[in-house]
Specification:
A: Chemotaxis protein chec, 36% helix, globular, B: 128 residues, alpha/beta, five-stranded parallel β-sheet, 5 helices, 5 strands
């Protein structure tokens, strides 16, 4: 991994930890190796445009997404509650914003989109960007993944 | 006390409302809007129906964003004198300066704690 990619990963780990500690009052740690979160997953996507062009994807199983929504809201959620998709989108938004805010100027002079949330998978989203890495995280045994491409 | 929360995420509107209550604000009514245009309509509809004490707004929203909302509010002379606090993932200095120039009195970056909301909001309410 290059130094630039190492730094991007460190910034991402830091952004994820901050969001979980602040908004969900939980610790969240990176996992090494591949983790299968494909089954029934929800994907949120934020795009960067400007000094940095790219995107941040967050994907989670239905079960992890429900636990995340409950932790954010402090109330139980139903499996197909639209608040679950909303919570995953907002989580991706805060992680992408946190990652962006840790970039040095002028790279931090980019705009982030509003989150788009889908249950249709990740195929083809990141193909046009030169640098891409994925990272898995776990909080209280619940696993989710983040892909950054730019 | 009445407050207006503007955010395209219903989850975040609930989280912000909870943070305001945890900050000790006694909210009699919380109006909600999912973008700037809805917020302007809410302000028009609620003119003369009791004083609004506080507006909290996201920046990055579809239809009409938070900065456009601030400009439009000023042009229509709606809820002038009501403190506006931006709550957003956009921590970039240029966004902060643009929001303040457009009439925002406070700025909170997501992610945030209830304590941070309290620290930004209470002085504005005391000064209003």
């Amino acid at each position: 991994m290059s130094n630039a990619q190492d730094e991007a990963v460190t910034r991402l780990d830091s952004a994820v930890a901050e969001v979980f500690e602040t908004m969900l009052e939980r610790s969240c740690d990176p996992l090494e190796g591949e983790v299968d979160t494909v089954e029934g997953r929800i994907v949120a996507r934020i795009q960067f445009t400007g000094a940095v062009d790219g995107e941040c994807l967050l994907y989670a199983s239905q079960a992890t997404a429900s636990v995340t929504a409950e932790a954010l809201l402090g109330t139980p959620s139903e499996p197909h509650d639209p608040m679950v998709d909303d919570a995953i989108g907002e989580l991706c938004n805060m992680i992408a914003g946190g990652w962006k805010s840790k970039l040095a100027s002028p790279d931090s002079n980019c705009v982030i989109s509003t989150p788009a949330v889908t249950r249709d998978g990740l195929d083809g989203y990141q193909a046009k960007f030169g640098t891409k890495f994925s990272r898995n995280y776990s909080f209280q045994g619940n696993v989710f993944g983040v892909v950054l491409a730019f | 006390m009445r407050a207006l929360i503007i955010d395209d995420s219903a989850v975040m509107r609930k989280v912000i409302e909870r943070a305001l209550r945890q900050a000790g604000l006694e909210l009699s009514e919380v109006l909600q809007a999912s973008n700037g245009e809805e917020a302007l309509q809410t302000l028009r509809d609620n003119q003369g129906s009791g004083a609004l004490a506080l507006i909290l707004s996201d920046i990055n929203m579809p239809v009409m964003d938070g900065l456009q909302f601030l400009e439009a509010r000023k042009q229509e002379n709606l809820a002038q004198g009501v403190p506006v606090v931006m709550i957003t993932t956009e921590g970039n200095e240029s966004f902060v300066l643009r929001a303040i120039a457009a009439g925002a009195q406070g700025y909170i970056c997501k992610p945030f704690t209830a304590e941070q909301v309290k620290a930004r909001v209470l002085p504005l309410l005391r000064a209003a």
